[in-house]
């Protein structure tokens, strides 16, 4: 495990150097967050029908989504460096190492999810809480279960990212998967519309899918929309999908490595 931790730490430190990109991304997320707040505020002010979440909770939900935007697999999925290694044949060097290749890629994915998030989440909280209507957890227990659930979300999104990366050994180009996967994630995780505001007949489907555990469920724990004891159900949901993604990723990589042909010398 020491080798994988060393790889994670090195990759994490490298990604922390992209401060200018993080600042630019923070500005972009701030802009789009304000637009989403204004749109949903207009919907709330135009209706008197009670909603599952009040306006203050929705605003907090939106800013949480902007703060943890980089935790979800978007532009960096699949891993661009691994993609280049597979296309160029340099993945042969990875296969020759006395390390488990899946764990190696998972460590890279975990660093890619957490380092950029850390650079953006702190300034977002510093701006959104005092100036933009973002609320704080109602009590310390809500904050604690939120942090635990976000750790589970990071592990889950890393497993999903690694699964997409391993699919590259089966395809000529991973561009199609890279375009489809983010759309599923952003819709299923609640970053477009909070899942609590979806039609009741549609919500059971989204509650089963893995993407709820990447953002929606931890955010509801933060706001107190879910009671603290609901964290056990959230962790169970995340854990089941985590095991499925890891199992599928390992199987796909093992089968793909057997049929992988590298030309050159």
Order of helices and strands: HHHHHHHHHHH
Strand content: under 5%
Return residue spans where pLDDT drops below 50 for at least 5 consecutive residues: none
Label the structural class: mainly alpha
Major sheet details: none
Mean pLDDT: 85
Tally of domains: 1
Helix count, per DSSP? 11
The protein's oligomeric status is single chain
CA-to-CA gap between the ends? 32 Å
**Tally of extended strands?**
0
**Helical amount:** 55-70%
Radius of gyration: 19 Å
- Bulk shape: globular
Summarize the structure.
This protein is an all-alpha fold and 265 residues long. 69% of the residues lie in helices and 0% in strands.
Describe the structure.
The protein has 265 residues and is an all-alpha fold. It has one domain (2-259). The chain has helices at residues 2-15, 19-45, 55-67, 80-88, 91-96, 101-131, 140-166, 175-188, 203-208, 216-223, 231-259.
List keywords for this structure.
69% helix, mainly alpha, 265 residues
